[in-house]
């Protein structure tokens, strides 16, 4: 006699197997019975969010810290469509997501009833499934009882391996269908393996050989290194080789920035003085997990000759001019690191590279007066503590914080490629949840080893502009509802500053409502006398006021939710934003001229 | 020498030609130069909204009052995808929308540069264009200078005629291209005409003949009557014929509900006592602008035999069993009304129909104690004034307000078919804008006629539940920013009541944050001392408190923005919601059994 498990519980047990403890979403009549099954899986908790776009952002933020896809549950049509922009962002930036969508029952679909959430008589009710096709790796509609379990497994495995969103569509009549429970005894296969081992060998051996021969090697680890779980390997490679290291705008924090070998953020022509020269003078650049978008390459101004370049990517590797399609960097990097760690000398390590460390210039020494873009970001950098998770919204915060120097283990969440404003407010909820799960795990481990020392907890710090905040503000209420205590910096600079920098600085379309009382925000959303939830809010109009707040022990301790509003002049932009725009404009003009 | 006009201005001049005075949207780097052109067209004003989904809702709400599509401008990828759910709703419910999307320049698209807002290297940059295909009538990508003007005209005309969303994609390099300005001298052709005049004749003559022969005729005007501009014709038909009239949940307000011939909301088995019997006993039902979705037909429980039925729809008409494909009701209805008005006697009018008026039962006579669902909706009905625009959110408000009796000219906005919660908060902004435009027009007319009488202004009243409010709350800040003074009722009943009624009344997934301080909302968003904008907030926990507020002259006067929070028990539902759920469940079980 085989024991059975409901389809819904099977799905969520597989989710729990990934180490996931929280699911984000919004209920709707086509997913309610599915949520009943979720509530029966004790490893998982439900986090209801205010709307589906925010939920997608939260799942994305969760994935970036957790290292496995976030799970989002939405309802048919209205829910799944609202989430689309958030899912697409997780696709573009390889955050990954398992998007579970409740839909009408199979017979109702077959009958094409004109239910609410459909659009016209006799409509094919799977029409929305088709709309999401470009923003996912794969999907399944669970209609066939015989293949449901294997389809769930296939789709989740694809999502974990690819770090791209996947969709599981659940007709509401199938959630209780009994599936063979014994299948759960065999774990999911989520390990990234290159099927062409000969090709993998060649990449590994050739790279090792180039390392051996090089005299001025560098490691440039980009964001997909982090997204695909290669951050620790990249750090081990840096430690073993003692090569100079560089990050990109999107991967900032991938290396220990306090390390003497760390040379800063390489972003083509939009880099700090000396940084591009240093990297570009290498005779070997190991470029891992690259994402070569406009804002991550200084507007396509990287200058690394192919003859000096090893690209180790998620869907191909390339050594000089030879391309290895389908080879994933992760197994490659692991073998390279292990080889080198075994025998440094064989690879000529350490190298006698005489390149000087690229020092980060100090942009401002302000101690009083107006808060400027040149002052604020490096100052916030100095406010950071080891293990902090920091989110910077698309716009001035994102470009600005690139100037800061991070403590050793800082994790940055920012969306420089997809660049959807409002993203960080949702993503911050996900980061808070993932960080809490990680801490719980640490505590479990430390209590089981009878250690009494507390592991350092991660502060979660959100920096968002006033315009972006207005996109997704309600989700701050979820931080409060679920007892999280992030530090929120709101940059109040009178509208969409990034748009002003790009075009129409004085035009009305770049304005927003300036009537919001940010000081009242936490109270409105739940942190106030009467609810028993403490919140603290600050307004800083000059450097003195900000220094007072940043220097305060209670503020830095992050014991309750806190909001610090920072006033910056409307037309003040970070230098990187202005430089990026200038370069992009020039490069695009060139591209268009070439085209014409 | 021909005079020219930039592509951008040409587009917006065509928009202005429809009588539109305001455009909704969010700026983004791919639409900024297009917005420059918009700002040069003095007939139009830009209304920046907090996010794109809210913007789509606003454009939808605007269209429902204005009678022409609302215009939404978004930016490439992040913006257009965020709006999808709102556009789909405008599709399902025939609100119409002209969605203008700024996108990368043509040469950049051609080069497939890996710009921000794309998703992967070498991506076809029109991929998002394909995603929106199911939620629009037609679209154009303005790449070819020779056809741009005619493409703009074609797409706008299709949008106006069909009342379905249309998309105009504008590569950023084309906004300044000079087009022939003389083309604007020929107005757009937006008139709905049936190309098959013979078929139209047959529908008109057959219907007139059935009217002549009938002894118990009825008019059942559904929501597409309103959406396609037939409300006044339907009212003229009712006046001329003196037939009993019926609306549906979605079309409530289509007729003068104070008229002695109005018999209420026909919704199959989910109707007030006597209503369905009255309608179903007709020997002729003129069913105009029908939309036969589950919640608009009492869960598919209409009982009107084909032999008594004339369907006058937007894409077909049907007389008994004979279907006339492609015949639009609007020209048909116009001819029928004009024929009848010319000669009542020829059609046996007035009829000696002895059917009694269906009286609306009074559900509650509460004058004290807790506020119940049975009390609140008819009470709000009595609060309404002629010309009010009222929006009811999907959920208890939407089902509940169906019980109210409206003054003569009330306009209702509700989304019973698409049913996306949060919709009304955005739609209310659109309704406010359209109402303001209408009043300005009236004032212009009255001042030009040297009349001194003020035309009655429309109050705009929003009723939204606490859960739905959390979806889209930020847009209330736009009401304040743009000096609107709606009356907002917030139903505080501890979560998603409509979901609780459907499934899992006590389950945690139907909970929301109960920590929001609704009394602080208007202040947070801008209406407070210090901004010079007055706002008033009330909390009503029992009937006495609510009666005091509703009876107050200042509250009813709507001179400033006001919010009235109404506390209702968590598990109290309107009878229509419970009945609808019971019937739908039964009917769907039957459908599934038939299927099996």
TrEMBL record, chains A, B:
Keyword tags: Decarboxylase, Lyase, Magnesium, Metal-binding, Pyruvate, Thiamine pyrophosphate
Binding site for Mg(2+): 466, 493, 495
Broadest EC class assigned to this enzyme: lyase
Transmembrane segments: none
Cellular compartments per GO CC: cytosol; nucleus
EC number: 4.1.1.1
GO biological process: one example: aromatic amino acid family catabolic process to alcohol via Ehrlich pathway
Entry keyword annotation includes Magnesium: yes
Domain Thiamine pyrophosphate enzyme N-terminal TPP-binding intervals: 7-125
Reactions catalysed, as given in the entry: a 2-oxocarboxylate + H(+) = an aldehyde + CO2
Name listed for the protein in its UniProt record: Pyruvate decarboxylase
Organism: Lachnellula hyalina
């Amino acid at each position: 006699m085989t024991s059975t498990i409901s389809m819904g519980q099977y799905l969520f047990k597989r989710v729990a197997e990934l180490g996931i403890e929280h699911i984000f979403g919004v209920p709707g009549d086509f997913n309610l019975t599915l949520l009943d099954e979720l509530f029966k899986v004790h490893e998982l908790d439900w986090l209801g969010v205010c709307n589906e776009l925010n939920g997608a952002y939260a799942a994305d933020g969760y994935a970036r810290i957790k290292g496995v896809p976030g799970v989002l549950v939405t309802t048919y049509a209205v829910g799944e469509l609202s989430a689309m922009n958030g899912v697409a962002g997780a696709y573009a930036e390889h955050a990954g997501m398992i998007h579970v969508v409740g839909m009408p029952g199979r017979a109702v679909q077959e009958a094409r009833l004109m239910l609410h959430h459909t659009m016209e008589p006799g409509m094919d009710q799977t029409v929305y499934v088709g709309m999401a096709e470009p923003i996912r790796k794969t999907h399944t509609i669970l209609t066939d009882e015989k293949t449901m379990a294997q389809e769930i497994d296939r789709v989740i495995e694809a999502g974990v391996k690819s770090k791209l969103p996947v969709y599981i569509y659940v007709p509401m009549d199938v959630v209780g269908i009994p599936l063979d429970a014994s299948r759960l005894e065999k774990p999911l296969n989520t390990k990234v393996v290159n099927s062409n081992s000969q090709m993998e060998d060649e990449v590994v051996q050739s790279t090792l050989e180039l390392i051996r021969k090089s005299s001025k090697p560098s490691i440039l680890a980009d964001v997909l290194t982090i997204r695909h779980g290669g951050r620790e390997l990249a750090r081990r490679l840096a430690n073993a080789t003692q090569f100079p290291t560089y990050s990109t705008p999107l991967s900032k924090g991938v290396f220990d920035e306090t390390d003497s070998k760390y040379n800063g953020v390489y972003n083509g022509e939009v880099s700090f003085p000396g940084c591009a020269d240093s990297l570009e003078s290498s005779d070997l650049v190991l470029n891992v997990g690259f994402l070569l978008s406009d804002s991550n390459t200084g507007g396509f101004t990287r200058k690394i000759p192919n003859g000096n370049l090893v690209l180790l990517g998620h869907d191909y590797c390339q050594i000089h001019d030879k391309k290895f399609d389908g080879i994933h960097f992760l197994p490659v990097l692991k073998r390279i690191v292990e080889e080198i760690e075994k025998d440094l000398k064989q690879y000529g390590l350490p190298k006698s590279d005489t390149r000087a460390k690229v020092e980060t210039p100090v942009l401002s020494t302000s101690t009083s007066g107006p808060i400027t873009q040149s002052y604020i970001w490096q100052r916030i950098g100095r406010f950071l503590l080891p293990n902090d998770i920091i989110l910077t919204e698309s716009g001035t915060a994102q470009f600005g914080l690139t100037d800061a120097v991070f403590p050793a283990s800082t994790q940055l969440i920012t969306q420089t490629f997809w660049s959807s404003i409002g993203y960080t407010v949702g993503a911050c909820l996900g980061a808070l949840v993932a960080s809490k799960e990680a801490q719980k795990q640490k505590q479990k481990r430390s209590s089981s080893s009878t250690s009494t020392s507390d592991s350092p907890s991660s502060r979660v710090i959100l920096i968002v502009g006033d315009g972006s905040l207005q996109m997704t503000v309600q989700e701050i209420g979820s931080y409060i509802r679920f007892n999280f205590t992030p530090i929120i910096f709101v940059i109040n600079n009178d509208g969409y500053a990034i748009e002003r920098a790009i075009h129409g600085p004085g035009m009305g379309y770049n304005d927003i409502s300036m009537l919001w009382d940010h000081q009242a925000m936490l109270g409105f959303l739940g942190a106030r006398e009467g609810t028993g939830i403490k919140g603290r809010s600050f307004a800083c109009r000059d450097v003195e006021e900000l220094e007072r707040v940043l220097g305060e022990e209670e503020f830095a301790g992050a014991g309750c939710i806190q909001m610090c509003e920072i006033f910056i002049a409307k037309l003040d932009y970070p230098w990187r934003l202005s430089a990026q725009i200038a370069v992009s404009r020039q490069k695009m003009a060139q591209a268009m001229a070439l085209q014409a």
